[in-house]
Design goal:
By secondary structure, the protein is mainly alpha-helical. The protein is about 75% helix and about 0% strand. The relative contact order is 0.14.
Amino acid sequence: MAAEKRQFRLDHWIAAILLFGMASIAFINVLSRYLLHFSFAATEEITINMFVWLTVVGTGIAFERGGQLGMVTLYNIFPKRFKKAVIIFGSSMSAALFILVDIFMIQAIYQELTLFEAISPGLGIPVWIYYVGVPVLSVYVFAGIYRDAVLRLGGLQDGGKL
């Protein structure tokens, strides 16, 4: 059996880089506190926002792997035609939810640019810079929803179980 060649996935790399960055920042801050008795104020700000971005990318990966909530027992007793409708409906509702998240984040970015002009306390940079990551990275959420729907619809040809 030949080894399966793994393709490059930008979303996996972004998640790995964000997780590595968060762990590194936290480790450096712990060392700094114990060795130098000094804590970097910006580390909390950076790690919280990296965590939000990681959550968005991870949500897309989870959707693709079928990690979203579902009623599998109820789904498995449905006839095949109804299963297709349920998959399409569920994927549409998931996409609609993230469209709403993106709309509200874009509104928040607009308000930060035009009205509030808030500055982050740790680094002193505009807060909207942190907000931009959510709508940009939600591209991976939509890709994950699409891949999951295609996989599940294709699975209906093979027997219809989740």
